[in-house]
Fold:
Amino acid sequence: MNLFDAMHRGGAAGRHATREMKKIQGEVLEKAGIKLPVPAPEVCGSRSTKRRSKRDIEIIEDAIYEALLEDKPMTVRQVFYRLVSNGVIGKTEGEYKNAVVRLLRLMRLRGDVPFDWIADNTRWMRKPRTWSSLESMLAHIGSLPPRRLGQSGCLR
Structure:
């Protein structure tokens, strides 16, 4: 297998072949007297943020589960503050969104946390009045006191 085929195969062999190909290209350019600018180290892929390890994520998920098991149902914000007070995560908006909200969503979708363990009482819903049948609607309207046109405030 040549380097080009290995590069397109992927995996560890592909990464190795890509490094070899770049090394060869560098040697060819050097022989030709061509010098390319070297990017600054921060542009070369170093990350300023630290990703959590799988073990860290497991610890947070265990803490979420324990908090909910102890005091269910809880709101997402209550879970967040429980983890903060237990020293599991920091008190930042990033931790709230990227740790608690994201992990709770994944845990619910995987079935680790039942949906009824999370309370969603912060959302006030506005919806139109509905009736189970035409007869029940007409009975309701018939029971209302008569109105004059424009009396409701909707018509002017």
Remarks:
- The longest helix spans residues 11-31.
- The helical segments are 3-9, 11-31, 54-70, 76-85, 93-110, 134-143.
- The CA atoms of residues 32 and 54 lie 47 Å apart.
